[in-house]
């Protein structure tokens, strides 16, 4: 209901043949550029604030540009950056445009290495200077670096202190710039190491340059720069001399997938976009493993290298629930299972009265979970039908069978998202008034005052849209009861690894727990948790525990959900309202390979996440209880 913002999406391409090969086989030397556009557009869901691309041209002569970049802001950034690139080719004759040799020597963005990035800011920092890819320029081709990533670091302060202590001076206090300086510094050291090695071997002039570019090992660069990074990341990079890499965090928090054949190597944040862009089967695409890097040298030779020791795997479950494209074979199955596992608590909420219950979903990301929920209820109804037939005790007549078998699960498209209205929503009271009309309903879709309405969504985070729009507009259908179903568990804690989630006090689950503490005369616990958080912050972060869990400990999930209803149900709503959540156990059953659940459980996979959540509660308490 309230769109969550994901940090970023990445795409990287390394062509393994000369441009003439693609011109001859595919009719254009822009094969790589066109595939990059597809990979980025298919991942548009991952970033709608900005986009950028970078290109490296191999075998450029001295004095010729070999590294190119284009960036833009706004929801139309992908179209803008590719339009700007194609402006360079607008005035060419058809003959020139089809001449791969001419393109390779004379045209910008006619290269063999491409990198693309889609951005959603989770830091509040925006503007073109924060748009990836980032460039670090140098007169040595091997020291030029382009970097982009899907990441969020929790320990920027520590890394900033360590690199400034050795004399570096990042241009901005932001994880992207700091990471660029770290990797760039280690790249400089690697080149200088090889320079001295070549000098000792008696090499001179361009022979040294060529030897460095042939021998450079980006694994050395990554092993010396990445161990400090606390957070979730897939970082992509390429050098001016043609080396390419992508590295994943050791907890496997952020996703990365790659494909390679004899023509191309591709990496992206999501598997199905590679399937679609290259028309290859899912089993031909490989996951970049936790702590692993994929490296390609100047010659296009690939190797996989373990950069950091893998930690306990905590791949982000919200990728499966919400962010990644539902067209992935595994994600589609998992989302259906999330819906199917909610049958029992929904039955309890409607008192097992499926005859007088209509099922629907909040458009659009909850649609797959809705299909799973329907499948679960179909299975439930089939079991009921078998019992009713067996209970007849005689050979049933045609009419008896028809009466039993004709019962159906009633599903309707009740809620409709009116996308057009969003562009007109202003601020303040005007925005709140218009927000009630972002969704519309299908009138006549249920029997007033008789039917229950069960409506599923993928997550409930702040509850703002429920309160301002959804519940009130659904009540216009006059259901006897509205059951709001979340296919994910209660979101109780901020993310810190690349999802733009609310601060603690904005989570409806957190507000409900605080309200319950006051309601039951237990408000002293808030002060106790504050003191525990302060005490934790005096410890090394590796020893810290999440003290904020103490806010939720006195209450069951059902008690927190019931208090949410009290906070969210508008006074003019006639229907009874209940909120049903997925359990954490159900989440793990549906998504067994993605056990990262810290936003639900508070079990952060890295020390930095634990430190930040304790700091968040200290800020909350001091802002609300010490004035």
Description:
With 627 residues, the chain is an alpha+beta fold. It folds into 2 domains: 5-150 and 233-313, 4-Layer Sandwich (Glutamine Phosphoribosylpyrophosphate, subunit 1, domain 1), CATH 3.60.20; 329-518 and 557-599, Rossmann fold (3-Layer(aba) Sandwich), CATH 3.40.50.2020. Helix content is 40%, strand content 18%. The chain has 23 helices and 22 strands. Residues 421-431 have low confidence and may be disordered.
Short description:
The chain has 23 helices and 22 strands. The strands form five sheets. The protein has a seven-stranded antiparallel sheet with strand order 4-3-5-2-11-10-12, with helices on one face. It has a six-stranded antiparallel sheet with strand order 6-7-8-9-13-14, with helices on one face. It is globular and about 95 Å long.
- Please state the overall shape, judged from the principal axes of the Cα atoms: globular
> What's the number of extended β-strand segments?
22
Helix-strand category? alpha+beta
Largest beta sheet: what is the strand line-up? Answer: 4-3-5-2-11-10-12
Roughly how many Å apart are the termini? Answer: 34 Å
Query: What value does the average pLDDT take?
Result: 90
> Could you state the oligomeric state of the chains shown?
single chain
Q: How many discrete structural domains?
A: 2
CATH class group of the largest domain: Alpha Beta
Largest sheet: 7 strands, antiparallel
Enter the CATH topology name of the largest domain.
Rossmann fold
Rg, Å, rounded? 28 Å
Helix content: 25-40%
User: What's the tally of helices?
Assistant: 23
CATH arch. level architecture of the largest domain: 3-Layer(aba) Sandwich
- Beta content comes to 15-25%
Query: Which blocks of ≥5 consecutive residues have pLDDT under 50?
Result: 421-431
